[in-house]
């Protein structure tokens, strides 16, 4: 029988989980520490107001106040709405096109930017390149095969902010509704990506954007470009945001978290869930329980169902494999190969794990807030 956290639904399928005498998990403590480090209410509003004041004081003759990453999902669309309507900013919306955005997501992006009169810049990666990288991560038998997209989004946001001389990048990530995924499930970095591509890739990367640690240091410290998760500071409820977007913008819902992108849906709901036995919803729903969005009972009920319906799988799988240019035989061979961990390949992670106590004073000069991975390392070492 599974051991489950008494205040969330983190359970013993999660790497590095520990429970105290009261049955509370160390992942619950990670979530509580994040909530304490980024309080909402008066303190969060005060900190956010200071950021807004800084933007407006340094606007000068710039056309845009900030760069905002938009996917067509709830968080990023609602973020655009409040930045323009509640705070009077003029954002530049940036979308990464990896060839897998759903029609609903694309429609949502255009509805939001057009109705809010916000300029949209879409960065298109040559599909042969991103396809090669996705295949690479699958052939490497890693759980998080959508890492190339995550890494590219960060690189593109910094790239465009730098080219437009914009100092603030705003994103809609929200640990209160998403949680902190275990490092073993989703970690990757550009060092690892380059190594994997060298081993398994076949297509030269020309349009795929990269951001080395050195480049991040240059952009964050010398150019003073900061990426900020807005919902760390201000009140936000995903269900209420969805209702507002639907009623006021004709926005459409796309299903589970991150299902606005078909490959991401496949990566989370099929590849991770069926090949690795990983259910990311246990983290997401646990975070929502602690933040008061749903009850623990509701969370336990939600994870009883599959994240990817049999009807959708039968409809999507052949399309996905064809788009990735995997024959059924090739995919079966990959699927049946031994599962690997990110620790099986070179990365920067061992340096973060070993030297995180010494790194934070340096990293704090580059990024505006302590990375969530540092909280996880600290708590899991106890």
Describe this structure in words.
The chain contains 18 helices and 5 strands. By secondary structure, the chain is of the alpha/beta class. The chain has one domain: HUPs (Rossmann fold, 3-Layer(aba) Sandwich), CATH 3.40.50.620. The relative contact order is 0.16.
**Taking Cα atoms only, what radius of gyration do you get, to the nearest Å?**
20 Å
Helix content: 40-55%
Work out the count of structural domains.
1
Q: So, CATH architecture?
A: 3-Layer(aba) Sandwich
CATH class: Alpha Beta
Task: Work out the strand percent.
Answer: 5-15%
CATH-wise, what's the superfamily?
Answer: HUPs
Q: Which stretches are low in confidence, meaning pLDDT under 50 for 5 or more residues running?
A: none
Elements, N to C (H/E): HHEHEHEHHEHHHHEHHHHHHHH
- End-to-end C-alpha gap: 25 Å
CATH topology: Rossmann fold
